[in-house]
Design goal:
- This protein is an alpha/beta fold.
- It contains 5 helices and 8 strands, in the order βαβααββαβαβββ.
- An 8-stranded mixed beta sheet has the order 4-3-2-5-1-6-8-7.
- The longest helix is centred in the middle third of the chain and has 12 residues.
- The radius of gyration is 16 Å and the shape is globular.
- It starts with a strand and ends with a strand.
């Protein structure tokens, strides 16, 4: 059985929206996009690189997958993250997407997320990593399907924006398995579900 790992950048008040660039996710009138870039450093790069050290497949919601095509799918640089993202098998959960041909190595999982991902998780294969995808993470968390979280906790508050758990989340206990502070004040915390 595969494990599902969620990796999310998050503020102290739980916001995960619009990390990468100002226009990344403006839903709800969010105007603080691009907040994460100034916190990148060598420590963060090294720690995130550990996730590329073993084979893993990616798991995306429709919206994030579409955004990542723009951010990663068209790049041809020598960034190791580019090579990893383009080479990985990418499963896209969607009720509306007709196909996943827009980005190499992408496979469409049509239907309800919890059902299709539960079936995929039960199959043999590489573990699955989710980057971002708040609504997908919330759905899979509620169904007890997420095994591990890597949270990049940024030292700021937003006041507005999409939060990791907007509303009640089911009671779930986690064990801290590792934590690393970066030179810019981000705490990279890894948790495993008990």
């Amino acid at each position: 059985m595969r494990q599902i790992n969620a990796a999310l950048s998050i503020t102290l008040d739980g916001v995960i929206q619009g990390l990468g660039r100002p226009d990344e996710d403006t839903r709800g009138g969010f105007t603080h996009g691009g907040w994460g870039g100034k916190y990148n450093d060598e420590v963060m790069g090294r720690e995130m690189g550990k996730g590329m050290a073993k084979p893993t497949d990616m798991l995306f919601g429709h919206r994030t997958w579409t955004d990542f095509i723009t951010a990663w799918g068209m790049r041809t640089d020598d960034n190791p993250f580019t090579a990893h993202m383009n080479a990985a098998t990418k499963y896209v959960v969607s009720r509306t997407l007709e196909n996943a041909d827009a980005w190499q190595n992408s496979i469409l999982l049509s239907g309800e997320a919890t059902e299709t991902v539960a079936k995929l998780k039960a199959e043999p294969g590489n573990d699955l990593t989710i980057i971002g995808c708040a609504s997908l993470v919330r759905s899979l968390h509620a169904a007890g399907l997420i095994d591990n979280y890597t949270l990049l906790i940024h030292p700021l508050t937003m006041g507005t924006g999409t939060r990791l758990f907007d509303g009640p989340a089911p009671m779930t206990k986690f064990e801290l398995t590792d934590s690393v502070p970066t030179t810019k004040g981000v705490i990279i915390a890894r948790y495993t579900r008990r």
